[in-house]
Amino acid sequence: MSLFRPLAEWPLLICGPMLRRVTPTRVSVFVVTSAPCTIEILLSSGGQQVAASPATATRTVGALLHACVATVVLPDASPLTPDVVYAYDVRMTPTLPAGPAKTLADQPGLLTGPRPLGYRDGALPSFSLPTGLQYLHLVHASCRKPHGGGPDAMAIVDSLINAAHGNQAIANTVEDARRRPHQLLLTGDQIYADDVAVTLLPVLIDVGGLLLGETVKERFAGNAVMTDPTVRPGPSRRRYLKANTKLSSSAMENHLVYFAEFCAMYVLVWSDELWARDGGGVPRLDQLDPATIYPTRQSPDWTKADDVARTRALADRGEVLSFARTVRRVRRVLANVPTMMMFDDHEISDDWNIDGGWVQDSRTDPGTHQVVRNGLLAQALFQAWGNLPTRFEAGVGKALLDLITVPPGQLRTPLAIAPAAADVLLDIAPTGPSTASQRVQWDWTLDGPQHRVIGLDTRTHRDFTTGGPNKVGLLTEAEMARQLTANKPTDPSTLVFVIAPAPVVGHPLVEEALQPMVTSADGVREADSEAWSVHRPLFESFLRRLGAFGRVVLLSGDVHYGYTNHTAYFGAAPQTPSRLVQLCASAAKNADELTRAIQTAGYLTMVNRGWLGFSTPITTDGGAKLRAGLRAMTEANPRDRVLRDIYFRLIVEDRLTTPPVIPAGPWFTDAATNEVTQIVALGRPDDWAYRTTYLSDTRTTAQRLTDLGVTQGSSVPQISRQYMQDLAVTVVGEPNIGQIRLRMTQGNLQVVHRLHWYVPAQNINTDTAPAAYTEHVAPLTVPTAAERPTVFKLPTVTP
């Protein structure tokens, strides 16, 4: 059987249409076609054409990979209207050879069948713009790995759209426009380049080879082509990469290497067109014969690890097949919701830029350098181009796309002839960092009628010098100023959403205990130690900059579990108190035993945490008293003295350095309590404080069932009913996506964060499986004085 859809059956449109950047005056759509075309976007409302884009030529990236971002531009005096459902069509006119124009309706099965792109037979894809905060409807998601554990939660977004636009009673009305999601924000790890299933990589190699054809003829490490036996999936590729790169990913045996593989991955995770299909058109995956990949016990090369890998490969095949069968629904989502993205590490490789050594290796080690270059080029094509199309119309952005575009009359791209030509543009040159004017920037902003979204690039502007070798700063001070502070709205009523791929305010047990302990024992890379709080001075600076906005909603992923918290931030004078809300939705598809263990643990007793920051270093005598008080904590319970001692060494000592930021309590001695109280009592204007509150779903178990439409007489199995009412009250470790709405309660603005997840079961079919949600409600009001942390001592327990 074929690993992919037979070439003779490939349609003209093989990926997309994907709605990308949409504003009242610009609508951008990304498509990939199998032949050179001109692309026109035809925008309509109520069946009447509103506007059209100019005919835009696709870029020939490969023999069968022709990509385009086409943009409808409307006059400033005639923008799109909020609360209106707009539809769009795509007119594709082949140019080489010339052929008749085709629209979406001309592609068999695209607007018809069980999953029509427009949610009804014959209907075109559509979207709407929000009218303001009252009806603003956002969705965010991250970490979608084809063989990751659990169902693909991105299918739930399809259900959210269908509940509005697929409802015949309200379709295309104001109600439809207000209920459907207005923006989808993908916050990182849109693909997994390093961790690929052994059953999927052969598909990527075959599809990638056809997509790019002879335009690249890429050789890795100056030798192996993509089909060489030395880089075939499994142990062979792992051995080759270990010998020819300095990559640090632990899941290296099927790491993407070639540009063609990266491109194929994007096409297959966003489109169902090229997957192999059965007679009913359902995606399928060839059976795996592990013996052809991993040594058997009769082989002299056999190790116990091969048996483990063989078992895992069979399980991964099932997950990939489950993923493939939801891709059509995800494609429909991407066609009907304007989508913005920000990459994280897995688009390139696990641990990408985690420390200064990694950065140096990516510049100077040829194999590592080539992988990073290919990953960045692919994300530029498939992610960054659509985030801000104007960035790629001229200057360094256009120069980068030109490098991966086959010029007229040529057979190969300029990149294939001179790969190093991209290095300065990507800021990966062996000679050192590029200047701001030489490189392509990846951060962006997007404005709505009463909100702004700021997408931060925290991967390529890191600080590796001021914190020491084990304390990376996710943004330098200069980049905080450029990406964040410079984009503060002039209107203070504008609500700002900031995409920070790694959570800014993390899970307290993970960031204050688990990660530091693993880092101490196994090192930064093994612990994945790159939380914002790792670099204390830059973390405090970042919070201060966020505080200047008055109120901010942070959107993050990365960690593979979802949660919500809010921080009452009392900055140094003259800054007024501010509210920072952290929303984390992760992973869309990548749950495992650890994420479910964190889900079960929740926050334990850590309902809130108060911190006191001081502008002046604590005196030697004062520091001694605080250390003694904190040391007493390590002696408080002999049963966990070792863990408490580690906590003291790894966390407390860091908190007492410059700038000193210490807990408000509980303090274990009177001397320590008095010392902190006296420092706070000084009332220095440059001191600051903040309190973080970790949220739970406050609905009753009965209400959780009622909200899902589950009644006493419904047919939902008892075990599913139990999950719906009791599971994931604080932290969601199942695959999830986050839904964001705003509401006024007694005159106070609140953000409602619903983390949607499928009820756990065997062999979940996302078409029929019941979904549940965890609801967290966070305030967006100015913090009151009562929320400011105050010093407290551990209460004395009377025997």
Strand content: 15-25%
Model regions low in confidence, pLDDT < 50 over at least 5 residues: none
Distance between the termini: 74 Å
Main beta sheet: strand number and arrangement? Answer: 9 strands, mixed
Q: What portion of residues is helical?
A: 25-40%
Total beta strand runs: 24
**How many alpha or pi helices?**
22
The strand order across the widest sheet is: 13-14-15-16-18-17-21-19-20
Radius of gyration of CA atoms, rounded to a whole number: 27 Å
Notes on the protein architecture:
- The structure is a single chain.
- The protein is an alpha+beta fold and 799 residues long.
- The protein is 30% helix and 19% strand.
- It contains 22 helices and 24 strands.
- A nine-stranded mixed β-sheet has the order 13-14-15-16-18-17-21-19-20, with helices on one face. It has a six-stranded mixed β-sheet with strand order 12-11-10-22-23-24. Strands 3, 4, 5, 8 and 9 form a five-stranded antiparallel β-sheet that branches.
- A hairpin with a 3-residue loop joins strand 13 and strand 14 (451-455).
- The longest helix has 22 residues, at 366-387.
- The radius of gyration is 27 Å and the shape is globular.
